[in-house]
Design a protein that fits this description.
about 85% helix, about 0% strand, about 190 residues, mainly alpha
Amino acid sequence: DQEKKKREKIYGVGSRVKYVVDTPERIWGFLDEHMYLEGAQRYLRAQEVQTLLTEREGKGENLSRFPLLLHQWSLVETFRGQISQRSRDRLLEQGLDVQEYAIALAAVAVIDELNPSQTMSLYFETRRAWLRGHLRTFMSFKKGQGFTSGNISDNKVDSDVGSIALVLSKAANIIQLSLCQAGQLFLEVNG
């Protein structure tokens, strides 16, 4: 009976060690598939398992039986920044479904421990970046075409006014889409 309990304890510890050891490969897979929230969740669970192994359950005993445990954990820790950065990069991509933005926002909020107002601020920061990028692209394009306010023909003015109207329309569309998505992401709908 004593031997059985000892074996069960070692098996439990070994299972936890395997969880930590398998975590980098699992997180890589999640990141490759744009499953950032799942990657963040796996990281947090592995962090809890690591804490159990190194601080709560026979610290010295576990580390002596599994000497690579600390090395493996340092490898797992590198993924925290990658999950955060890849999720933030995903938020900057245009044309995704609102659910994809929700997943990326949730992953950043979980991994970076953001509160709801910080999460909303992050969302609007990415939308401002969209808008700035769109306007910069237009301005650099126009500078390359010699866009000036000096002596220009009527055809050039008509072309420039049309281009400006198109850019402003696109900017308004970005703002409208951002507000609609913000409502979907942050407002509670009773119904």
